[in-house]
Design a protein that fits this description.
The protein is α+β, with helices and mostly antiparallel strands. It has 2 domains: 1-30 and 183-213; 34-179, no CATH class. The chain is 26% helix and 30% strand. The strands form 4 sheets. The protein has a 4-stranded mixed beta sheet with strand order 2-10-11-12, with no helix packed on it. A 4-stranded antiparallel beta sheet has the order 4-3-5-8, with no helix packed on it. Helix 1 (2-22) packs antiparallel against helix 3. The chain is elongated, with a radius of gyration of 25 Å.
Length: 213
Amino acid sequence: MMNNMKWFCILFVFVLFVFPFWAAADIVDPGWKEVDYCFSINNIADYPDYDFFLYSDIGGPPQKIEADECVYFYKFASPRIFALPAGEYDETTLAVGQPLDDQESFLSNPDLIPADIKIESYGQVTVTSPLDSVEDVLTIGSLTPQALEIEKVKRIYTYTDGTIEEEHYQNGQVEGPSWNWSSWWYWLLIPFAVAILIVVLLVWRDKRKRRSA
């Protein structure tokens, strides 16, 4: 009986350590939910001579970014933002004689200007979290024919009750939503689980000593 209890406690602690990493896998695990994520660029209108695009690393045609638009993308993608002179884009072509969905044509365009920013989805939180969606507000710092600098200005958290919380980026970082139990609640349980396991093992060892005495 005691031996079974020992293995049960070991398994319990193992699950507590591993479960958080399951939540980051491709499938949404029971008890977790995806948080809708998008981004917007607040000063596209200041650059009328350029068009801006989101290009996904998992394929598909480039997506034009409009002013005041919150842009969504596939959650497992790591897309990049590019700029092109405004005259080089229409509804059917990105370069003369090349179709819009021709990825090689897009990436090989000599006038393509990549942005120096990384865009990622927000990820998952537990179903107990009231966090519903996240929006990053970006701004174009500078744009030349050689370089496109984009900065993250603020992050907007929207909760299920309609409450909106804003947090400004500091040195490219944010602390996260004020209601953030969903990302670290399990760390509170782990010390207790480890303590229980230690007690069980000590009792089990003591009983073995008594039997062998």
